[in-house]
Amino acid sequence: MRQCLLRRAMPLPPPPPPRTPGVTGGRLLSSLSPPPRLQSRREVHIWYLSPDELNDASQLKMYMELLSPSERKNALSMNGENLQKVAVLSRALVRTTLSRYTDCKIDPRLFEFKKNKFGKPEILWRADDDRIEWPLHFNISHTSSLIACGVTMDAPIGIDIEEKKRNTAKNVLSLADRYFTPSEFDHLVNLPDPDAQQKEFIKLWTLKEAYVKALGRGFSGAPFNKFSIILAANNGIQISVEPKALNDSNSSCDCLSENWKFALAELYGSYYMAACMEDDSRSSGLFFEYFSLHTNSSVTLFFFPDIFTACYRF
Fold first, then answer.
1. Of the candidates 146, 138, 82, 182, which has an alpha carbon nearest to the alpha carbon of residue 275?
2. On the chain, which terminus has fewer CB atoms closer than 10 Å, C or N?
3. How far is CA 89 from the centre of its chain?
4. What is the DSSP string of 150-202?
5. Predicted local distance difference test score (pLDDT) of residue 187
6. What does the alpha-carbon distance between residue 201 and residue 236 come to, in Å, rounded to a whole number?
7. Which domains are delineated in the chain?
8. CA 50, 53, 54 angle in degrees (round to 5)?
């Protein structure tokens, strides 16, 4: 990862006008600045927010109105108000962010989505749709207190966020022995203390999640023990697919490859965020720089001051 492009902090927009039938996404987002341009397949834009910043029920209701009926039903089925709020804001963040990348030519409410057979969501463009098919890919991840959405152009993306002090039901070595490759397990065993093992385990898990999500497979379609993530001494990140998985054409893991690039960043000092996208250069084994993410505040949802954007240039 070579460069991080920062956004300037933007003032909060004025209150939105009363909603009327036929209001477009451009009207909804007219007071907001456009995002930085996705210049090529080598860029990933990450937007993230903290649900804890929103405590106004009327604003949450406004975001709810951006969702499809099935998204609303799913959000309301969540157990507890906080999980419902996270579900609403996650979908609102996806819809408003994608709308911005169409220069607000598509109303956030008009986006339709489909899932592949492994459950990864994608934008649905219908054959009879006269709108431009914007070459956008996205992926979303959230915890109970942080939501992140990654956007790329013409390139699949996977992102994952995890709490650095995430509670694990078992000792991390037991989990690593069950889910990770032998080389990853040995790497953790050789670390000096349990705190270091916990920290490294969460990093590896976050990177692995981002990879299988970028593949569009998820954990069930690409088991973690079929590939290794290597965190090098120079803070580089490398992927190595187990030889048996690479050579088995009948395996469910025939999608695995080493043609992927990674970024690992810290958010708020309390979370790890990993991003993964395909490497255009096709140069297997290339290392990329690890760095702490520094961003400036930028607004994407109404009255939401704590939303940030960063542009990664691979």
1. 138
2. N
3. 14
4. EEEESS-EEEEEEETT---SS-HHHHHHHHS-HHHHHHHHTSSSHHHHHHHHH
5. 94
6. 16
7. 3-10+46-313 (3.90.470.20)
8. 110
Under a CB-based contact definition with an 8 Å cutoff, are residues 166 and 141 in contact?
A: no
Contact partners, residue 206, CB within 8 Å, separation at least 6: 160, 161, 162, 264, 272, 273, 274
**Residues written for the chain:** 314
Q: Rounded to a whole number, what is the distance in angstroms from the first to the last CA of the chain?
A: 5
Hey, what amino acid is at 180?
F
Residue whose structure tokens are 């709490």: 163
Task: Specify the 3-state DSSP secondary structure of 32.
Answer: coil
Note down pLDDT in tens along the chain; length 314 residues.
Answer: 333 332 322 223 333 333 333 233 333 444 445 666 666 666 788 888 889 888 888 889 989 999 999 999 999 999 999 999 999 999 999 998 898 888 888 889 999 999 988 888 999 987 776 667 788 999 999 998 999 999 888 889 999 999 998 877 678 999 999 999 999 999 999 999 999 999 999 999 999 999 999 998 877 667 898 899 988 777 678 888 876 654 555 455 557 877 888 888 888 889 999 999 887 654 333 333 333 333 333 434 544 444 455 666 66
CB-CB contact of 184 with 176 (8 Å) = yes
Residues 313, 233: Cα–Cα separation, whole Å:
22
Count CA within 13 A, CB hemisphere, residue 42.
11
